[in-house]
Amino acid sequence: MPLQLPNLSAEQTRELLPENLIFLGYRGSIAHDMYVPKNDPNSIDDKDLMGIFVAPLEHYLGFGREDIKERFIGEWDVVSYELRKFMGLLLKCNPNVLSLLWLPERHILFEHPLGRLLRQNRSLFVSKIAYPSFTGYAVSQLKRMTHFNQDAQRELYALESELAAHGIDVNNPKPTQAQRDILLERGPFQGQRLDAIVTQYQALSRKYYAGGYMGAKRKELVKKLGFDAKNAAHLIRLLRMGIEFLRTGELKVARDDAQELLSIKRGEWTLEQVKVEAERLFGAAEQAHQDSRLPEKPDSVKAEALCLRIIKEFHGLGKE
């Protein structure tokens, strides 16, 4: 596929993307028109992509192969799903994958005719299942938003101070050989003690810093506010998107309220403001579900037929 991502080599692009790609587009902040470029001192965003691929025939006729490929290089964060896996998530109204079906043309990097066929049949996946799906993801963001409490801050600060005293970068807390040699001069067990501190710090970081990965700028914002403003923005966005979808059957991926959501992400809303708006939106989502005229469930029979058609056509099966 003649596709090369900006500022990456052809080899790096091949490492990020799967073979047999039928669709590739932006997800996350770029898709929602909320991306803050790296040259902005307040930027905490990566460039997130999502792809769909048809696996080799062995995947379907043999013992199966990789159905998710996730890779990171620099600011690029790419996740790709095998078609059958992707459609299974669509049938559950997964907000992240559902967004690809309504992605604006300007955010599409590659679209095979079969990828276009999938997007043209997006109505198969419209249903009231969006209510538990979107609100469930929103609840998850709400919990993660406030997971970082004052006790956690004090504990992490103490460990960071110890690491800093040894000249270790908390964003990459792995002692160099030179640092280990210095510790050995101080005593035989100093290196073991430092390893224990690093292990403890990494464990707490995974627990409190949004699942394990968070850049330095975002960590500092979390510490300053006492909650994760990026999770807060996700929370409000998910609820608003879910309400709109239940009312119209259309997903507004590119957000008209992008500037307001950005103000939340920058930490310009207080925790109380976020909670009040979230409570209002949870109530509105419940009402939208009750009033919704969408089908109760997606059309799984037609979705399965579509999945089979795409796989067969991609591999040239069934042709005389």
Plain-language structure description:
The chain has 320 residues and is of the alpha+beta class. Among the domains are: 133 residues, Beta Polymerase, domain 2; 59 residues. Helix content is 55%, strand content 9%. The protein is built from 15 helices and five strands. It has a five-stranded mixed beta sheet. A hairpin with a 2-residue loop joins strand 3 and strand 4. Helix 8 runs antiparallel to helix 10. The longest helix is centred in the last third of the chain and has 21 residues. It is globular and about 70 Å long. The two termini are 27 Å apart. The mean pLDDT is 86.
Supply the helix-strand structural class: alpha+beta
CATH topology of one domain: Beta Polymerase, domain 2
Largest sheet: 5 strands, mixed
- The overall pLDDT average reads 86
Question: Could you outline the blueprint of secondary structure elements for this entry?
Answer:
Blueprint (H helix, E strand, L loop, with lengths): L9 H7 L4 E6 L1 H4 L15 E7 L3 H5 L6 E6 L2 E7 H9 L3 H7 L6 E4 L1 H8 L9 H16 L4 H16 L11 H10 L3 H19 L7 H10 L3 H20 L9 H8 L5 H21 L8 H15 L6
Helix pairs in contact: 4-15, 6-15, 7-12, 8-10, 12-13, 12-14
